[in-house]
Specification:
Length: about 325
C-alpha cells in the first residue's frame, strides 16, 4: 500500500463515529463509497444538510418507483434506495471531516431516515394489497401485516440508536450528541426565539415527538438503561472500560442486525429480487423473536450490571419517593 493509499484509508477510519458501533454493512460497503463522495465534496460549499435532502429525494424516488409500473421498476427502486443509503452516510462523514455539527442537521438526518422507511413500507404495502388482497379480508390482513412490520422496524432501529448513543457517550471523549427529551425541549424553546423556516419547524415537531416516544419505548424495553443522558458523568478511561466490559458483546448483535444500514441493505436486496413481502415478514417474525427474546434479556442484564458498576440509577429503575 502506498503512502497515498495509507492517507486515504486513515482518513476514512477517522470519518467514522466509532468502529464499536458502526454496522458491518456500513463499514465495508456504504461508508467507503460515501467517503469517496465526501472527499469530493470537502472543498465545495455543499453542506451536509444539502446532502441529507438529496438522500431523502433518492429515498422518496425509490418509493415512487415501487408504485410506478414501468419495466424493471423494482430494480430501479433498489438502485435509488442503495444510492440514498450511501448519501445518508455522506452527510455525517462530511460533517466530521469538516469538524462541523448542528442540531438541525442531526434532526434532519433522523427525520429523513424515518421518512424514507415509512414511504417505502407504504408503497410496498399498496402494491402487495393490490396483488394479494383479492378479497376484503385478505386486503385487511395484508395491511395489518405491513403496519405491524413497519412499527416493529421503527422500534428496532430506534432502540439501536439509543444504545449506540449511550455507548458513544460513555466511550468517546467529548461526545455531545446525546440529548434527552428535556434537553431537546430546552433547545427548541431557544430556537423559537429566532425566525424559523418551514422546514425547521417540521423537523423540530418530528424530532420532539420522536425523542419523547423513543424514551418511553426504551424504558419499557429496558428499565435499567439511561434515557436522561445528563446523569452520565463525562468520559473517563475507567468508566469507558467498565461499560465496554458489560455492553460491548450485546452491542455487536445490535450493530450487525438492527441498525438503519442493515435495514436499508435488506430493503435494497428485497427490492432487487422482488421479495419485499418476504422481507417484511422476516422482520416481523424472526427479527422480533430475537429482539424481544434473547436480545432483550441480554441487554437488560448488561444494562443492569453496567449501571450498577458505574453507580448510575436510571429513572425507570429508581424506587418511588
Amino acid at each position: 500500500m502506498s503512502s497515498a493509499d495509507g492517507s486515504f484509508w486513515s482518513g476514512y477510519w477517522r470519518s467514522l463515529k466509532s468502529r464499536e458501533v458502526e454496522e458491518p454493512i456500513d463499514i465495508y460497503l456504504h461508508r467507503p463509497l460515501a467517503y469517496v463522495i465526501a472527499r469530493g465534496l470537502l472543498p465545495t460549499s455543499i453542506t451536509p444538510d444539502t446532502v441529507t435532502l438529496v438522500s431523502l429525494a433518492f429515498g422518496l424516488g425509490s418509493a415512487a418507483l415501487i408504485l410506478w409500473q414501468l419495466p424493471h421498476h423494482w430494480q430501479w427502486a433498489a438502485l435509488l434506495s442503495f444510492i440514498g443509503t450511501v448519501l445518508d452516510c455522506v452527510d455525517g462523514q462530511l460533517a466530521r471531516m469538516r469538524k462541523t455539527s448542528s442540531v438541525l442537521g442531526r434532526m434532519l438526518d433522523g427525520t429523513a431516515d424515518s421518512t424514507v422507511v415509512m414511504c417505502a413500507a407504504v408503497a410496498a404495502g399498496v402494491v402487495h394489497t393490490l396483488h394479494y388482497g383479492t378479497t376484503p379480508l385478505r386486503a385487511a390482513v395484508v395491511v395489518l401485516l405491513v403496519v405491524l412490520s413497519s412499527m416493529s422496524i421503527s422500534v428496532q432501529v430506534a432502540l439501536f440508536d439509543h444504545y449506540k448513543t449511550v455507548f458513544l457517550k460513555l466511550t468517546i471523549p467529548g461526545y455531545r450528541e446525546a440529548e434527552s427529551i428535556e434537553v431537546v425541549r430546552r433547545n427548541y424553546a431557544q430556537a423559537k426565539r429566532q425566525p424559523m423556516s418551514l422546514l425547521a419547524r417540521i423537523v423540530w415537531a418530528y424530532y420532539l415527538t420522536f425523542v419523547g416516544r423513543q424514551g418511553s419505548t426504551v424504558r419499557g424495553y429496558d428499565p435499567y438503561t439511561v434515557t436522561e443522558f445528563e446523569t452520565l458523568a463525562e468520559y473517563s478511561p475507567e468508566r469507558a472500560a467498565i461499560y465496554r466490559e458489560h455492553c460491548a458483546g450485546v452491542m455487536r448483535t445490535w450493530r450487525r442486525y438492527f441498525g438503519f444500514g442493515s435495514l436499508m441493505f435488506g430493503i435494497a436486496l428485497s427490492l432487487a429480487f422482488e421479495l419485499t413481502a418476504e422481507y417484511l415478514l422476516l422482520r416481523l417474525t424472526l427479527f422480533n423473536l430475537v429482539f424481544y427474546g434473547p436480545l432483550r434479556w441480554a441487554q437488560r442484564r448488561a444494562s443492569q450490571r453496567a449501571m450498577a458498576a458505574l453507580s448510575v440509577v436510571p429513572a425507570a429503575a429508581a424506587p418511588a419517593n
